[in-house]
Design a protein that fits this description.
The complex is a heterodimer. By secondary structure, chain A is an alpha+beta fold. Chain A is built from 7 helices and 4 strands, in the order H-H-H-H-E-H-H-E-E-E-H. In chain A, helix 1 runs antiparallel to helix 2, helix 2 packs antiparallel against helix 3 and helix 6 runs parallel beside helix 7. The relative contact order of chain A is 0.13. In chain B, helix 16 runs antiparallel to helix 17. Chain B is globular, with a radius of gyration of 23 Å. The chains are: A alpha+beta, B alpha/beta.
C-alpha cells in the first residue's frame, strides 16, 4: 500500500486548508506522495483523489503533465544533465556521454542496482554557471567530465547521503502557518465583498 | 575579485546602484535578522501608514516594468482588475525556466524576505485577499529558503493576521510546481495552481486581471518585479525613476552566459547599458573567451530572435531591441563565439520548445516536433535543400507573415521589428521557430553547406500550406 501515512495525511490536510479550493493542493500533495514512496503509484493517486475530492483519473490527468512525477520506480538518485543552449555551448553533451559511459546506461535509464537514474534535462536556470546538472534537484555548477566521474563515485560510496536526500524529497524545510497567525483560506464564492481593511483608510 | 560572493554563485556586484541585490554581499542575506538590520520591512511599514490607493499610485508613478518577459508596468496591471469585484488574488511567478535566465532563483535564495515584503505590499495596494507564491519545482533550495523566510515572517507578524499590528491581514502561501516550462505563462500558471494540467487559457477577451484564479480577478507578477517594491516604498517613486531612462526606469537583472570570459548575473541600470558594455565591459563579461570572435547572441532568453555583432551598440532597452527585430524577455543573453556550430546551437533551443509544448495548439504540438526532427536531420548531415524550405513552411504555419529578425550588413538585410503574428495561444510555438528562423536568416551559408541538393516538391502539392 502506498497511501499517505498518518503523519503525511495530517500534513496533507494542513496544505489543503491553505487553498480556497482543495484541488489546488494537488501538486504539493503529489510531491508529498512521491517523497514517501519514491514515485507515484495508482493507490497513492486514489488516496489523493479522496483527500481533495476529485476522481483518481483527474489526479493522473494532472500528475502526468508534469515531468518531475515518476510513475515507475527510479533510482535513489536522479541525475539531470542540462542540454539547453548555454550548457550545450559549454560542453554538456560530453558530460552526458561521460555519465552514460560511467553508469553503463543511456539517458532515461536506471542502473541495475537501482541507485542512479540518468536523465537529459532542459534549462535549469543556472545558465551563467554552465554546464550544470542536478542530483535530486540539488545543483552542481561548472561541471567537468572529471566532476561527473567523482560525483558518481561519491554517490556510489554513500558520501553524499547527508547533503542529498533520496529522490522524492524536495525542500527539506516546509512552510507552517501558525494557527493564531494565519488568516485562513475562504472559498471564492464566500468572499465577494472587498476585504474589511480595503476601506480607503491607512491600515496603520 | 571584489564584488563576487561564494554564496551567490554567478553574481557580480560591480560599482553600480543596486536595488534588488543590495544585500547579496551578506552570507546570511536570507535571514530575518539580516533583513531587519538592513532596512527590511520598512517599506511595508511606510506603505501601511498610507491608504492603499496612495501606495498603488506610488508604484504606478515608479513605472516598474514587469520582469517576467512582457515588460508590462506592474502598477498599471494592478489597475486592470474590474471595479468592485472580489476576491482578488496575487499569484507570484517564480517558475523561472526561460533558457538563459538566471535571476529569480537568485533573488528567492538570497533575499526571500524582500520578495515576501513585495508580495504583502502588492496585496495591500491592490486589495488582494490572498497570495500564492509559485516556485519552480526543480528549485529545491529556493523552496527551502522561501519556506524558512515565510515561517519567520509569520512568527514576527510581517505576514498573516493584523500585519505590524495594523488592520491589514493577508496570507502568503508557498506553492511549488513539478516540471513544466509552459507554466511560466501566466494563464498556464493559474491552471497549474488550480491543480490542473498547466495549459494556457485562450485570451483575449479575458485576461487574468479580470478572470483568473478560480475565475476571479488575479494579478500575476514576476519575482524580480515584486522584489523592487520594498525599495520603492522606502525611497519613493522619484528616487526610482531617477535611475535608468524615462521609458525604462530603475535597474534590472541580466544574466549573460555562453562564450564570454566572465559569465554572470548583473544588476544593471535600466535602458542605458548596451550589449557591447555587457559582453565586453570590464565591469561585466570582459569579452569573448580566448580572445575569440563574437558570432551571434540571443538578447532576451531562448524565445528571442538572435542578434549579431551589428547590434552590439543597441542599449538593453525594450522598445529599441523590439525595433531592431528582437526582445529583451526575461533578461538573458546567450553568447556564441566563432567556433559555434549555428544549426546545432539552434537545435538545442528548438528541441527545448518542442519538448515543452503542452500540446493544446496543433501548430505548436505538431510544428515544434517537425522543426526539431527536420533540423536534427540537417545537423546530422542527412538533410536536403528541401528540408530548409520545409523548415520555413512549418514555421510560417506557426507564425504567418514576416517573422522578426535583425539587420545584417554582411548579408544586406534590413530588420523586421518584433513581434510576430501567431496561430497559437501562447509563445511556446513561435519560440520553437525563432532559433530556426534566426539561424537560417543570419547564417544561411552554414545550412547550405550542410545539405545536399534535391528538387523541392512544394508541400502545396499535397494540400498543405497556403
Amino acid at each position: 500500500m502506498s497511501r499517505l501515512n498518518d503523519a503525511n495525511v495530517a500534513f496533507a490536510k494542513e496544505i489543503i486548508a491553505r487553498y480556497p479550493r482543495p484541488k489546488s493542493a494537488l501538486i504539493p500533495l503529489l510531491h508529498l506522495s512521491q517523497e514517501q514512496n519514491g514515485y507515484i503509484t495508482n493507490d497513492a493517486m486514489a488516496h489523493l483523489a479522496e483527500l481533495v475530492g476529485v476522481t483518481s483519473a483527474e489526479v493522473y490527468g494532472t500528475a502526468s503533465f508534469y515531468e518531475m512525477f515518476k510513475f515507475e520506480p527510479v533510482g535513489k538518485y536522479v541525475i539531470n544533465i542540462c542540454g539547453t543552449l548555454s550548457c550545450a555551448l559549454m560542453g554538456s553533451e560530453e558530460l552526458l556521454h561521460r555519465a552514460e559511459h560511467k553508469l553503463g546506461v543511456k539517458a532515461g535509464g536506471t542502473t541495475p542496482d537501482g541507485l542512479i537514474t540518468l536523465e537529459h534535462a532542459e534549462c535549469q536556470a543556472a545558465c551563467t554557471e554552465a554546464p550544470c546538472l542536478q542530483v535530486n534537484y540539488r545543483y552542481r555548477f561548472r561541471v567537468t567530465p572529471a566532476d561527473v566521474d567523482s560525483l558518481i563515485d561519491d554517490l556510489r560510496a554513500g558520501k553524499l547521503s547527508d547533503e542529498i536526500p533520496a529522490h522524492g524529497t524536495l525542500a527539506k524545510v516546509r512552510q507552517h502557518i501558525p494557527a493564531d497567525r494565519g488568516v485562513g483560506a475562504v472559498a471564492p464564492e464566500a468572499a465577494t465583498t472587498a476585504p474589511a481593511w480595503f476601506d480607503g483608510k491607512a491600515a496603520l | 575579485m571584489t564584488g563576487t560572493y561564494a554564496h551567490a554563485a554567478g553574481f557580480y556586484a560591480g560599482d553600480r546602484p543596486r536595488i534588488v541585490t543590495s544585500r547579496f554581499e551578506h552570507a546570511d542575506s536570507y535571514s530575518l535578522e539580516r533583513y531587519l538590520a538592513t532596512g527590511g520591512y520598512q517599506g511595508l511599514r511606510k506603505a501601511l501608514a498610507r491608504p492603499a490607493s496612495e501606495v498603488h499610485d506610488e508604484v504606478k508613478k515608479a513605472t516598474v516594468l514587469g520582469r517576467g518577459g512582457a515588460g508590462f508596468p506592474a502598477g498599471t496591471k494592478w489597475g486592470l482588475t474590474p471595479e468592485g469585484v472580489f476576491p482578488r488574488y496575487l499569484v507570484v511567478n517564480g517558475d523561472e525556466s526561460e533558457p538563459g535566465t538566471y535571476k529569480d532563483r537568485l533573488l528567492m535564495e538570497r533575499d526571500p524576505h524582500q520578495l515576501i515584503e513585495g508580495c504583502v505590499i502588492a496585496c495591500y495596494a491592490a486589495g488582494l485577499s490572498q497570495c500564492f507564491l509559485y516556485i519552480r519545482g526543480e528549485m529545491a533550495h529556493a523552496q527551502e529558503r522561501v519556506a524558512a523566510a515565510l515561517n519567520e515572517a509569520y512568527e514576527a507578524g510581517y505576514v498573516g493576521k493584523n500585519i505590524l499590528g495594523s488592520t491589514f491581514s493577508v496570507d502568503v502561501v508557498l506553492h511549488w510546481g513539478a516540471g513544466a516550462y509552459v507554466v511560466g505563462e501566466e494563464t498556464a500558471l493559474i491552471e497549474s495552481l488550480e491543480g490542473n494540467r498547466g495549459m494556457p487559457r485562450l485570451k483575449p477577451p479575458f485576461f487574468p486581471a479580470a478572470i483568473g484564479l478560480y475565475g476571479k480577478p488575479t494579478i500575476v507578477n514576476n519575482v524580480e518585479t515584486l522584489s523592487n517594491l520594498p525599495w520603492i516604498l522606502m525611497n519613493g517613486a522619484e528616487a526610482y525613476t531617477a535611475i535608468g531612462t524615462a521609458t525604462s526606469p530603475g535597474t534590472r537583472m541580466v544574466a549573460v552566459s555562453g562564450h564570454v570570459r566572465r559569465p554572470g548575473v548583473y544588476e544593471i541600470i535600466n535602458g542605458t547599458t548596451t550589449f557591447r558594455d555587457l559582453i565586453y565591459g570590464d565591469d561585466f563579461c570582459q569579452g569573448i573567451r580566448n580572445g575569440n570572435e563574437l558570432k551571434a547572441f540571443v538578447p532576451g532568453g531562448g524565445s528571442a530572435p538572435w542578434f549579431t555583432p551589428d547590434q552590439l551598440d543597441i542599449p538593453f532597452e525594450g522598445p529599441q531591441a523590439g525595433a531592431a527585430g528582437s526582445m529583451l524577455g526575461s533578461g538573458a543573453i546567450m553568447v556564441m563565439d566563432h567556433t559555434t556550430d549555428i544549426p546545432a546551437a539552434a537545435l538545442t533551443l528548438t528541441r527545448f520548445y518542442a519538448h515543452e509544448s503542452c500540446g493544446k495548439c496543433t501548430p505548436c504540438r505538431e510544428g515544434g516536433t517537425w522543426l526539431e526532427r527536420i533540423l536534427r536531420r540537417v545537423v546530422d548531415g542527412k538533410g536536403t535543400d528541401a528540408d530548409l524550405q520545409q523548415l520555413i513552411e512549418v514555421g510560417t504555419s506557426i507564425c504567418p507573415g514576416d517573422f522578426p529578425h535583425a539587420s545584417s550588413t554582411r548579408l544586406g538585410l534590413t530588420a523586421v521589428p518584433f513581434p510576430y503574428k501567431m496561430t497559437t495561444i501562447c509563445f511556446v510555438g513561435p519560440s520553437a521557430y525563432t532559433p530556426v528562423h534566426s539561424a537560417l536568416t543570419l547564417f544561411p551559408e552554414e545550412f547550405e553547406a550542410r545539405v545536399t541538393k534535391r528538387t523541392h516538391i512544394p508541400v502545396t502539392a499535397v494540400g498543405v500550406g497556403e
